[in-house]
Amino acid sequence: MHPLILASTSPYRRALLERFGVAFEATGPDASEEHVTGESPVDRALRLSLAKAQSVAARRPDAVVIGSDQVAAAGNRVLDKPGDAAKCRAQLAALSGTDARFYTGCAVIGPAAGVRLVHVDTTTVFFRALSAGEIERYVDRDKPFDCAGGFRVESLGITLFESIESSDPTALIGLPLIWLASALRRAGCQLP
């Protein structure tokens, strides 16, 4: 098996990949996350996932590299990570009673292993009607400023929803493990 590298500094993606029980290292990719005018959220998720994997694979062609990126959108409007409490509250207020889609892209590249696989998983989150007080309490307790959409589904954020539609519940956290397990098996990794 070739060395396995996660091209990410995300603690959420690291924790998800640890579920597989395989040795891997994590390193930050050198890929620009600039918006491209006219690019759809799906295309952005795929482009950034591939760019992250390629940037690390260029330095480590002996390895199998995983790149991933998540783009949240309400309609065609991309929902970036809020960064602070005020932006988080505003984003959640705008999402109250509506739905948002989360496009989680994933790329597995291994030059030496002869593998180049890409995928995007779509998750739809339906928000319940949220009061200003509920939003305020949630933001104060969970502080999800580094999360697309302004919530942590694996934490208190689950209380904000009416329902979630997904073929892979781990994709909403940041890494589609069902697809990734299949891709890694194709790259020669022994997963149960």
Question: How would the blueprint of this fold be written?
Answer:
Layout: E1 4-6, H1 11-18, E2 25-26, H2 41-59, E3 64-74, E4 77-79, H3 85-95, E5 99-110, E6 115-127, H4 132-142, E7 161-165, H5 177-186
Parallel strand pairs: 1-2, 1-3
Antiparallel strand pairs: 3-4, 3-5, 5-6, 6-7
Helix pairs in contact: 3-4
Detailed description of the structure:
Helix content is 31%, strand content 26%. The protein is α/β, with parallel strands linked by helices and 192 residues long. It has one domain: Maf protein (Alpha-Beta Complex). Strands 1, 2, 3, 4, 5, 6 and 7 form a seven-stranded mixed sheet that branches. α3 crosses α4.
Compact summary:
The protein is α/β, with parallel strands linked by helices. 31% of the residues lie in helices and 26% in strands. The chain is built from 5 helices and 7 strands.
Q: What structural category characterises the helix and strand content?
A: alpha/beta
Give the domain tally: 1
Classify the helix fraction into a percent range: 25-40%
Low-pLDDT parts are none
Number of discrete helical segments: 5
CATH class: Alpha Beta
End-to-end separation: 15 Å
Give the overall average pLDDT.
Answer: 95
Rg calc: 17 Å
Binned strand content: 25-35%
CATH architecture name: Alpha-Beta Complex
